[in-house]
Amino acid sequence: MQFVAKAAGVSPMTVSNSFRHPERVQEETRLRVLQVAADHGYVPNRAAGDLASGQSRVIGAVIPSIKNSSFYRYVRGMQDAVAAHGYELILTLADTTVQEHVAVATFLGLRVAGIILVGNEHEPATIDLLRKTSVPIVETWVIHDPIDMAVGYCVAAATRALVETVLSRGLRRIGFVGYAGEVSRRFTERLPAFRESMETAGLRPDLVHLVDEADGFGAGPSALEALHRLDPAIEVVLCPTDIVAAGVVFECGRRGWAVPERLAVAGWGDYEIASEITPGLTTVQPNAHDMGWQAVTLVLNRAAGEAAAETVVDTGFAVVCRASA
Amino acid sequence: MQFVAKAAGVSPMTVSNSFRHPERVQEETRLRVLQVAADHGYVPNRAAGDLASGQSRVIGAVIPSIKNSSFYRYVRGMQDAVAAHGYELILTLADTTVQEHVAVATFLGLRVAGIILVGNEHEPATIDLLRKTSVPIVETWVIHDPIDMAVGYCVAAATRALVETVLSRGLRRIGFVGYAGEVSRRFTERLPAFRESMETAGLRPDLVHLVDEADGFGAGPSALEALHRLDPAIEVVLCPTDIVAAGVVFECGRRGWAVPERLAVAGWGDYEIASEITPGLTTVQPNAHDMGWQAVTLVLNRAAGEAAAETVVDTGFAVVCRASA
DNA sequence: CGAGAGAATTGTAGCGCTACAAGACAGAAG
DNA sequence: CTTCTGTCTTGTAGCGCTACAATTCTCTCG
After folding, report:
1. d(CA A97, CA A101)
2. How far apart, in whole angstroms, are the C-alpha atoms of residue B252 and residue B258?
């Protein structure tokens, strides 16, 4: 900065103001400074600036996976929101809670303006760190027991809505595919909600099969096989993701079963594949873009000193009805 | 830090050393300092530390999209490499070159240890900035005309290898699906390579159809329709991505065409869907994880002052043969 | 028992920038 | 011609940390 100041014939403060407070500097002076900076490839050192000003315009987000298009929309939502407010977003991939902890420590070390996490399952050490910091924290995709703030939707409510949708189609023999093993809590919330809905409707709540999360499309055929054995006249299968649902649809194709006439199928997540395959998948669409946007908004509101009153935002969901169910 | 030092009864320097140079501090003292820090949720301010030491252990990467699993493996490769060397990786999503420019400016402002980009298509302003900085720059997925360093594979060579693979299956009527409009150069490299290979083999090089990149799976049916009209006896379709190839396979299912007997199909990218659908897709697999790893390695080598001699690394590719072709 | 070597610890200065207060300067009013 | 006002510009101090040199504190050895 010293160098640029000298080259432009002004003081370092004027250089600083040219970048950060354009209105404080005369137009002509500012343009000259910016020109000199551009000529020399000078970019203000944010680390130093943030240190001096005690604030940061960078928000850190930890995302567990970048494999599905819901997360893509979620990230876009965050990116769009930060861009609209002159902030920056930095992302770290973390597939395990241990990686998440490392990422959180890094963000805290960088003194980011806020941290956005996915889910509410963290290492005890992470929770400890998060509770002690004054940095705004937002947990997304869930709305229970936030450490600080949360943005998400109610998985149980979405499950009930999906069951009601298939009931309204006149379907009664409803099979449910869930994930077995150590999976995120937002998956485990679905089964009890399904059972409850079925009992309320006076229908069999036990047409349930659990598959491995790692099986991808492959989980479809095995789930279909298992549920068909439980009830050969099964009418519809509710899947934990659109990937599994697509696997079921492909398997129906192989078996020569018409979808939805012989078997209806519903997915979850409204991934890209849901609208691309034939028949299109009926699925639950979380408002992923909105969720990302709201998460950033919560951080910014907190930074602006606004009331921390409503710390939980429900971005809702929609049951998207396509041809598969 | 002052606070922690006081609480632990040592000087600030000892606190600093406890974190950064454990060997300089007596075990007992170090543990006490770390304990006090943990109790108070203290995390050293990296911005200040980096400023004082004049170095950074953070590498910035700009990625254009997180929609496909190749990029996922690529990011994992980078993440694994930085983790192995005690560095951190921060990601920014940028779908346009303008967004990329903003991201690059942010990284430069953060004084990262290195910047990793995808492709070699950038804004003139970005190139200018990149040439003037002394920060190591790596461009990935391409190996032509790097600004600084590059890691990638030769798309033309992979195209030729794919054509040879289908030729070796005895197929002769080969259709090609490309992307129309403003697409990344790595897509545009494929068509000339295809034409050349076909001419060398003495076969029709004009069974070509261009589709819109945004069409996803939907591009499959329209491409199939168009190529079938060009040559009703077409034997194989080479697609620009596995998504398009999957779209073609699904469409074949609808038409009752057996794959690969009636029509063989090849994709590109070895996305997850390639191995999940039936029949599995024959496709080109870029060594995405390796590419990410090598990109980080190049940055670290440069940081370690090692020779900048070999600045281009070819991570190669593989033609993965599955049932579809 | 004092000198010397080595380990552990501690001041000092400064990284590049910004907040804030103070200064310079032009033009308007008296 | 002085005073005042408002605009533009500039010193000063310090953000939280680390490199480096200096210091203190063992402990060993002649």
Report:
1. 6
2. 7
Residue B276 is nearest to which of A45, A47, A217, comparing CB atoms?
Answer: A217
Distance CA B288, CA B310 (A): 20
Q: B237 is written with which tokens?
A: 């379709």
Does B76 lie at the interface with A, CB-CB under 8 angstroms? yes
| Each residue's pLDDT expressed in tens, for chain A with a length of 325 residues | 888 998 888 989 999 989 988 888 888 889 999 999 999 989 999 889 999 998 898 999 999 876 677 888 999 999 999 989 989 898 888 888 999 999 999 899 989 999 999 998 999 999 999 999 999 999 999 998 899 999 999 999 999 999 999 999 999 999 999 999 888 888 889 999 999 999 999 999 999 999 998 888 889 999 999 999 999 999 999 999 999 999 999 899 889 899 999 999 999 999 988 988 889 999 999 999 999 999 999 999 998 876 666 689 999 999 999 999 9
Q: Which of chain A's residues have a Cβ under 8 Å away from the Cβ of B111?
A: 45-47
Q: Is B273 on the interface with A (CB under 8 A)?
A: yes
- Name the nearest CA neighbour of B165 among B321, B3, B323: B321
CATH value at residue A307: 3.40.50.2300
- Say if B82 falls within a structural domain: yes
Among A196, A194, A206, CA closest to A166: A194
CA distance B195 to chain A (A): 30
Asked whether residue B217 is assigned to any structural domain, the reply reads yes
CB of A43 closer than 8 Å to CB of A18: no
Q: At what angle do helices A124-132 and A97-110 cross, to 10 degrees?
A: 20
Q: Residues B191, B244: one domain?
A: yes
Would you call B317 an interface residue with chain A, using a CB distance cutoff of 8 Å?
A: no
d(CA B165, CA B160): 9
Domain extent for A195: 155-286
